[in-house]
Structures are given as structure tokens and as C-alpha cells.
Amino acid sequence: PGKGTSHPPLCPPGIKCGGVLSAPSGNFSSPNFPGRYPYETECMWLIVVAEGSSVLLSFSHFELEYHATCAYDYLQVYNGAARDRGNLLGTFCGHSPPPPFSSAWHVMAVVFRSDRHVAKHGFAAAYQKDACGGQLTGLSGEITSPRYPESYPNDAECRWSIGGGGGGGPLTLVFADFQVEGGQGCSFDYVALFDGPTTSAPRLGHYCGSVRPPRTISATPHLLILFKSDFNIVGRGFKAHFYSAGECQEVFTAIKGNFSSPQYPNFYPNNLKCQWSIQLPPGYRVKVFFLDMELEGRSSLTGSCDYDHLAAFDGGTENMSLLGRWCGRESLAPVTSRSNQLLLVLHTDRNTAKRGFSVAYVGGK
Q1: What is the DSSP string of 102-138?
Q2: What positions does the domain CUB occupy (predicted)?
Q3: Does residue 167 carry a pLDDT above 70?
Q4: ∠ CA(326), CA(167), CA(280), 5° rounding?
């Protein structure tokens, strides 16, 4: 054979590594665990449970080579099947085990990689389906009651603790669907929201019935969602989206400025709805310049921006006239409002993230 570098095999011969895990619950570990894992190994486990369920993943042992940015040996957890940076929940190494993770839908991927030096004892993990609750550290995600959209079980108690993922800003929670047994001050079945990591934090709301709760924005970078059901009468439950509002819901009143999609120029998160509102004094118009844009492309079926897209509206709300709706990689001409307000809205779906966008704006008379 000629010269050149050969890539290490996906897994050294004889090492069982990775695969699809489709039972309702199970365990998996690094190759050779509890012995030391082999060098130059890459394994990927895809956890797939019944649609409508979620996956709860937890680690009982964790010891990988340490590096400040986990550049040598690492374990990555993804919300979904794709190794897509918008779905990455975290990259871990060293001795601190990852927190328990709850997936936003019925698929989760775990990737383990070791380099050619320094091997440790590795990790052992367990997963179960329909676990309710968990630690959610992504910048965005989706939460559903157990078995949603089928009826939730009796005697459920679920706690989702959101935050601590490095976003650091307030969190926004929006309910897309809500149907929980009502009555008597919501003492039977209910959803309660707390402005912090525990139930001792200030309460932001207590809801039941079939009216969707209002959009909630936390004051702290943590939000706890508690769902309880009693011994009889159930409903469809709920579906909610959360996102870090710090870089996703902003109002600009200066005459000129600039902003970009969350995490730009790194990949934006999935499942976002972000709004940037430019509000200038009366008599001004807003001109927006697109410095860079790379979003998921058009649908091959419809030819439209059905997936991730950026839209501009001539005013302060999405009811105002549409100035443009874009996706993919386009170099865009500047857009000018007819009024003193302009709203930019970014929608991203549950897979395929890209670099995002960067814009500048200026007010003129």
C-alpha cells in the first residue's frame, strides 16, 4: 500500500462498541468497562424508544482523560439522531459525571471517543423510556407530559429542571398544547412553574384545565416545571418549548446596532423561536443590512423555506406586513421598514442547524 495516514477503525477488532438500543430501558458502557477503554476508539449508541416517549439517560460511573475543552477523550450526548451541533446537549470528560438528561423526543445519541494516549476506566450509563422529568441544559428544547399526546398516567410526578447550560440568561417557556384535569384550585392534576432550580424558589404559575398557560419568562437562569397527576381522571397533557431568552428575545432602541443568531458563528440551537424588535423614535425608518446568512435550505418538496427561516415584519408584531422570509445561503439586499419599528423572527425546527446570521441596522429619517 502507498504512504498516507490511515484512519483508525471505528472500533478496534474484537471490541463491542455502539449500536442501536431499542428496548424500553437498558444499560451500556465504554468498551472493556470497568477495565480501561482502548485507544483510538469511536462508538455511537443510538437510543430509540416509542414515538411520543422521551428518554431519561443517567451515568453511574464516569472517568475519562481530563482536558479543559475535552479535546482528547470525550463523551457527547445529542438530542436526536443526528450528530448535529444544534442538537448537542453537552461534551464531557474528566471525573465529573454528566447530569441526568431527558431527551426532547424519542431519540437520543451518545458518542464516545478516545485518542491514542491516556486511557481511563470509562463510563457506565442507563436509560429508560417515559421517564418524566430530568435535567435539561440545552439552550432550547421541548417538554411533554408522559405518553403525550396519549393520556398521561395516574399518580405521576415529574420535575424538569431547566438551566445551567451556559446560556446564563432568563428562560422563556411557551405551551403549544395544554389539557390537564381541572377543578378545585388545580389541586388534583396540575403544572407548577418555579423561578429557580427547586420548589423553594418563587412560584411563577400553577395551572390546570384546558386553557394554555401564558408565555412565562423566568427572572433567573433556572426554571423548574413540576407536573403532578392524582389517582383518577386524566387528560391529553401538555407540550411546551423552552429557550434561553438572553440571546433570543431582544429589543433595540438605539439608532444603530447589530446582532446575530444565538451562538453565532457556531451553529444555532434547534427548536427556537427568536424575536429581535427594533423600536426607534417616531419619524425614523429602520434599514437592516445582512452581513452573513446561512440557514437550513429550502424544502425540496415545496421549494419554500418550510424548515428554518428568518422573517422580517414592518412593525412590532408578526401581524404586520411581511418584508421578507429567507433561508439557506443567500446574500440579501438591505430591507427598509415603512414605520419606525421592524421585527426579525428566527424559527428553527428540530434538526439540521447551520451557522445562522449576522445583521446590522441603522435608523434614518
Answers
A1: E-SSSEEEEEEEE-SS----EEEEEEEET---EEE-S
A2: 17-130, 132-245, 248-364
A3: no
A4: 50
Domain count within the chain: 3
pLDDT in tens, 207-240: 999 999 998 989 888 999 999 998 888 889 998 8
Q: Taking all residues of the chain, what is their mean pLDDT, rounded to a whole number?
A: 86
267 located within any domain: yes
- Per DSSP, the residues of 35-69 read SPPPSSEEEEEEEE--TT--EEEEEEEEE----TT
Taking the CB of residue 357, how many other CB atoms lie within 10 A of it? Answer: 22
Which is more confidently placed, 136 or 182? 182
Q: Where among 210, 225, 244 does a domain terminate?
A: 244
Give the span between the Cα atoms of 354 and 308, in whole angstroms: 9
Whether residues 92 and 183 fall in one domain: no
CA atoms of 323 and 363, how far apart (whole Å): 16
Tell me, yes or no, whether 49 and 109 share the same domain.
Answer: yes
Among 69, 104, 130, where does a domain finish?
Answer: 130
- More reliable by pLDDT, 71 or 167: 71
The verdict on residue 13 lying in a domain is no
How many helices and strands (H and E) does the chain possess? 0, 27
In 3D space, the residue among 131, 133, 85, 130 whose CA is nearest the CA of residue 109 turns out to be: 85
pTM for this entry: 0.50
Domain boundaries, position 35: 18-130
